[in-house]
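Researcher: Quick test of sequence recovery. Tokens follow.
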């Protein structure tokens, strides 16, 4: 009996340690890993970020910040769906193409004619995509059909079914950019260049809208962020700006797309709680056997 009593405090201490470990398991969500934006022609989110989230110049970018705050601009490289798996039209309804149906980026869907745009012409066009994390996959770039009305929300049926460019991306990039050539057909007036980047090493996909003007200079010229601007805002971003290259890890799901845990407890806490329950159960079983 004396040896059993001496062992009980040690068993209780061990169980308490497991319970304490469960109590301190971090419950904060993983940081989303975001991966780029079109810089030529300049995408809407990139153009507004280049103006400056705290002091945008164009009225549409001012309105975006008034509506959604500055965070969507600091997170310019995140417009994604973590589990798209090629089901783009099924997941993104008409009118939500530019935001990828993400509430955070809802202002990008505004059908306005004052978005800063890039002047273009029919023929060969050099696309440039700034990537903060290269991924293996395919970029497919579309252009709206002739007769597109920029005062109406963008629909899937507005896009020409023939891509203007298709580019196989790799897990490395040229100094942080993917550069590739496409061919723009003849158009007049304002149009939208729509990019879908589907990874083939993950179900994750990325989307963007770039405003372009055919047949004349743009009223408000879109400018891409400088490297200095990108570096200056990186600490205010809620997504990763670190490239993965050849040692890429699976992407963390963003809060908007993370699956709901089957347990009412967060997975990490539930797992730690299971260990604690196992330890306590073992303690009582040992006591019963000793008795």
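Model:
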């Amino acid at each position: 009996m004396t040896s059993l009593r001496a062992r009980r405090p040690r068993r209780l201490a061990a169980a308490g340690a497991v319970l304490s470990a469960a109590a301190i398991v971090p419950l904060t969500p993983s940081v989303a890993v975001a991966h780029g934006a079109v810089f030529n022609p300049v995408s809407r989110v990139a153009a507004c970020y280049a103006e400056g989230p705290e002091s945008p110049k164009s009225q549409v970018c001012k309105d975006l910040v008034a509506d959604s705050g500055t965070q969507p601009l600091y997170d310019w490289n995140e417009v994604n769906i973590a589990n798209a798996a090629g089901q783009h039209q099924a997941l993104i309804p008409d009118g939500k193409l530019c935001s990828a149906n993400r509430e955070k980026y809802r202002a990008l869907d505004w059908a306005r004619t004052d978005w800063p745009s890039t002047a273009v012409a029919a023929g060969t066009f050099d696309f440039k995509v700034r990537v903060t994390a290269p991924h293996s996959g395919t970029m497919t770039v579309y252009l709206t059909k002739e007769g597109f009305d920029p005062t109406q929300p963008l629909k899937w049926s507005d896009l020409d079914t023939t891509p203007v460019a298709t580019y196989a991306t790799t897990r490395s990039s040229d100094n942080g950019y993917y550069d590739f050539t496409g061919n723009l057909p003849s158009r007049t007036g304002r149009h939208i260049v729509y990019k879908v980047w589907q990874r083939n090493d993950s179900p994750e996909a990325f989307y963007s809208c770039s405003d372009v003007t055919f047949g004349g200079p743009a009223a408000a010229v879109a400018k891409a962020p400088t490297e200095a601007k990108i570096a200056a805002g990186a600490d205010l971003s809620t997504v990763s700006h670190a490239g993965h290259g050849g040692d890429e890890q699976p992407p963390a799901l963003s809060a908007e797309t993370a699956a709901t845990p089957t347990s009412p407890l967060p997975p990490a806490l539930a797992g730690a709680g299971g260990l604690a329950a196992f330890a306590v159960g073992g303690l009582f079983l040992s006591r019963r056997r000793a008795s």
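The first strand starts at residue 32 and ends at 33.
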